Amino acid sequence: MKVVKALEEEKMEREKQEQEQTAENKSGYIRLKKFHFIMLLFFIVFISAGITTVALSFGEEKVVTVSNDREEFTKLYKAFDTLKNGYYKKINEQELINGAINGMVESLDDPYSDYMTKDEAESFHSTISSSFEGIGAEIQEKDGHIMIVSPIKNSPAEKAGLKPNDIILSVDGKSLQGVTSTKAVTMIRGKKGTKVELSIQRPGSDAPITVPIIRDEIPIETVYGEMVDDRIAKVQITSFSTNTTKELTDKLNELKSKGMQGLVLDLRQNPGGLLDQAINISSMFVPKGKIIVKEQDRNGKVKEIASQNDGNPGFPLVVLIDKGSASASEILAAAVKESAGVPLVGEKSFGKGTVQTAADFSDGSNIKYTIAKWLTPNGNWIHKKGIKPDMEVALPEYANLPIINPEKELTLSTSSTEVQTAQKMLKALGYDPGREDGFFDEKTKKAVMSFQTANQLTADGILKGETTLKLMEKIRELINNNDTQLNKAIEVLKEKMK
């Protein structure tokens, strides 16, 4: 019985242990399940948040949090929002943005930096790459005024008598006071055959005059050349555009075939253009390795650009400059003077010593802005100073006479500065008006009638329309035939050719 009892007690003890073990296992199972459950809850919350974020991101209504990490723009944003929400009229947001950008650029107080709208940018690019329709004059803003740097050769502006430093006061009666040069260009340009009236103030003249000009297509042909005698050629570069280097190369090869042994390079009235073209052309005349131009950045670091070609044209050279020679033409003039010993003849140049580039925006607008100073090979900065020629030669006095408005009638008993100008023109052409004080008397009338008869015009003694235009045309021809600066350049060249 003891054995049976012992066996039963052992069995009971074993069952007790199994129950305890089962309880422990069950307890552990429950603890494990609770842990998994809690983790599952976290996982579900996380996934739900992610799905919500994705749904909101790709849905029609987006939740956007703007982080303004550019504190300097806080004031600008506030000004924009203030006007957008509070101005008494509905505003054009794009115009407001354009105005803000334009204001930034204007605050630089740099006449060569501009913000251009899409249309203005297209006009800017066309000026240096193809033909365009307008009057054909390079302009710039100076001291709040729009000033002519130079008219383009054979353009309506040149034929109308516009000259460097003329100030354009208004276009078709609209004042240009405070207007940017880019905006002024868009106002002056227009379709071929249309008329634009400019109010012009010329330095030295008492009163402004109105100049009507018929717009035309202005081809970007930049190189003109001819033989002036059996051995000497004259080549004029009117601006530095996309194809100027090729045009010049072709023209020089043509003139060489005609016997050219010496060259007068005419940079007068050249307002500049593309820097790379000025460097390429300078390399034709500056020996290889010699400095053409230096660029100085905002930190004072100077980059030297040297001639990459042989720079030995095989013939002597003289360069003509005047107050209409600016920018790229000054780079060329300084390069050949200081690095190749080429003499300069004429008048002091304009004085533009900065380099610009353009940054385009996706909507077609852009910013043209100054990136560096340029220095001559000897390190001179000619900005607002110009380049002084080795031999200063002025044109005759009548070359600087003001324009006469052909729509204004000048007749007996008229007294004005325009009558005075006409009298000086008549005298220069050999038709003596008897006086030059601006009073239109009988002798002045006779001089006008003699001029009209000689040019197959109605001899009524009245200066207006066709008579006025012909008078200014003949003065231009006289200037070209009595070009004192060119004559001096030829004289200097002949000395070099001996």
Q: Topology, pairings included?
A:
Elements: H1 2-58, H2 74-86, H3 93-106, E1 114-116, H4 118-129, E2 132-134, E3 137-142, E4 145-151, H5 156-159, E5 167-171, E6 174-175, H6 181-188, E7 195-201, E8 209-214, E9 216-218, E10 223-227, E11 232-237, H7 244-257, E12 262-266, H8 275-285, E13 291-296, E14 302-306, E15 317-321, H9 328-340, E16 344-346, E17 354-360, E18 366-375, E19 391-392, H10 417-428, H11 442-454, H12 466-481, H13 484-497
Parallel strand pairs: 11-12, 12-15, 15-16, 16-19
Antiparallel strand pairs: 1-18, 2-9, 3-4, 4-5, 5-6, 5-7, 7-8, 10-11, 13-14, 13-18, 17-18
Helix pairs in contact: 4-6, 8-9, 10-12
Describe the overall structure.
- The chain is an alpha+beta fold and 498 residues long.
- 40% of the residues lie in helices and 19% in strands.
- Helix 4 (118-129) crosses helix 6 (181-188), helix 8 runs parallel beside helix 9 (328-340) and helix 10 crosses helix 12.
- The longest helix is centred in the N-terminal third of the chain and has 57 residues, at 2-58.
- It is flat, with a radius of gyration of 39 Å.
Brief write-up:
40% of the residues lie in helices and 19% in strands.
Choose one word for the global shape: flat
Using the CA coordinates, give the radius of gyration: 39 Å
End-to-end Cα distance: 154 Å
SS summary, helix count: 13
Q: Give the averaged pLDDT, no decimals.
A: 85
> Strand share of the residues?
15-25%
List segments where confidence is low: pLDDT < 50 over at least 5 consecutive residues: 1-67
Structural classification:
alpha+beta
Number of strands: 19
What composes the largest sheet? Answer: 6 strands, antiparallel
Please bin the fraction of helical residues.
40-55%
